[in-house]
Design brief:
The chain is of the alpha+beta class. The chain has 2 domains: about 170 residues, 2-Layer Sandwich (Fructose-1,6-Bisphosphatase, Chain A, domain 1); about 150 residues, D-Maltodextrin-Binding Protein, domain 2, CATH 3.40.190.90. The protein is about 35% helix and about 25% strand. It is built from 11 helices and 14 strands. Strands 1, 2, 3, 4, 11, 12, 13 and 14 form an 8-stranded mixed sheet that branches. A 6-stranded mixed sheet has the order 7-6-8-5-9-10, sandwiched between helices. Strand 6, helix 5 and strand 7 form a beta-alpha-beta unit. Helix 1 packs antiparallel against helix 2, helix 6 runs parallel beside helix 7 and helix 10 packs across helix 11. The longest helix is centred in the first third of the chain and has 17 residues. The two termini are about 30 Å apart. This is fructose-bisphosphatase. It catalyses: beta-D-fructose 1,6-bisphosphate + H2O = beta-D-fructose 6-phosphate + phosphate. GO terms for molecular function: fructose 1,6-bisphosphate 1-phosphatase activity; metal ion binding.
């Protein structure tokens, strides 16, 4: 079967598996259901191999989709190999407490083209394609916004920003410039999908660095643009008990890759493959990606895919009885995670 269909189905089934735990107040259950769905859907697929470059942790400390884990047709030396960035559920907290902001997502690119990101924070600016030539994060976010406003000859651009204390000043500045600011609790990958789908002009904020590779893949695959730079953990959390140990790991990674917090990274610095593909499916979702629903034995899933500058939005219907009779692997998941 075509690998795109397999990967699209994987994020859809991961959202279906996690649906059981929407509103459970347990984000680990949400995540583990999606992780198992990914492993079940991908572990025995033929014709391609996947290596997780950005996942949920290292092999020794994360019983999840870990960095360097292999999936797919791993015994076949002749089949193509792909790098993977994955977040089985971006926004486990929104899903656990049943508010908007959670999706299942994966991005792939050809082997050795995806940068393995550290567990750091990252300042990101993701813009729609009409602003691709204007972006220069080195000038600062406000100067970039001013250039976009000048090109449009209007002030009321729409942007999405994570509603975090670290963004209070920039939110105020953007509002004073006439920008319409939409605040979200979690999910800057989901927010970037909204930009691609025309719901906003840009996303800005400081979020997780591993998610940066997902957003970079989305930017390349859809024809949009992203720039970013790393942010030290102690700039966000100065007095946490793990701050010192995290700083040591950050410095080691930056020394190895000759990248520091002043280095402006483009999307193709993170994913150097113009044929990269990006997939997502809504759980509690929000914006242009709709939440999963269940009615009379059927799951209704809204999914998204981007590749080669082509953007696709899907509405998929999983009739539980029909699927159970045709796909034993999905039946296992449907039986285990039925609500």
């Amino acid at each position: 079967m075509n690998k795109d269909i397999i990967l699209l189905r994987t994020v859809e089934v991961a959202a279906i598996a996690s649906y059981k735990y929407i509103g459970s107040k347990d984000k680990n259950l949400v995540d583990l259901a999606a992780v198992e769905a990914f492993e079940v859907m991908l572990k025995n697929e033929k014709g391609f191999k996947l290596k997780i470059v950005n996942g949920e942790g290292e092999l020794d400390n994360a019983p999840m989709l870990y960095v360097n884990q292999l999936l797919g047709d791993i015994s076949n030396v002749d089949c193509p190999f792909y790098d993977v960035s994955v977040d089985p559920i971006e926004g486990t907290n929104p899903a656990a407490f049943n508010f908007a902001g959670s999706i299942s997502t994966i991005a792939i690119s050809k082997e050795n083209t995806m940068l393995q990101m550290p567990e750091m924070y990252m300042e990101k600016l993701f813009v729609k394609d009409k602003y691709n030539d204007l972006v220069n994060l080195e000038e600062g976010i406000l100067e970039n916004v001013l250039k976009m406003q000048e090109q449009e000859m209007r002030k009321d651009l729409k942007c999405i920003v994570l509603d975090k204390p670290r963004h209070d000043e920039i939110i105020k500045s953007l509002s004073n410039m006439g920008v319409i600011v939409r605040l979200i609790k979690d999910g800057d990958v989901l927010a970037a999908i909204d930009v691609v789908n025309g719901e906003a002009d840009f996303v800005y904020g400081i979020g997780g660095a591993p998610e940066g590779c997902l957003m970079a893949s989305l930017a390349i695959a859809s024809g949009c643009r992203m720039q970013c730079k790393l942010v030290h953990y102690n700039e966000i959390w100065r007095n946490e008990k793990e701050t010192d140990s995290r700083m040591l790991k950050e410095k080691a990674w930056m020394s190895k890759h000759k990248i520091d917090t002043s280095t402006i990274l483009n999307d193709r610095d993170l994913v150097s493959d113009d044929r990269t593909r990006f997939f997502a499916a809504g759980l509690t979702a929000g914006g242009s990606l709709k939440p999963i629903t269940y009615k009379k034995g059927k799951f209704f899933v809204n999914a998204f895919m981007a590749s080669h500058g082509i953007v696709r939005n899907f509405n998929s219907i999983y009739d539980v009885n029909k699927v159970n009779g045709l796909k034993p692997d999905i039946k296992f998941l449907f039986d285990k995670y039925k609500r």
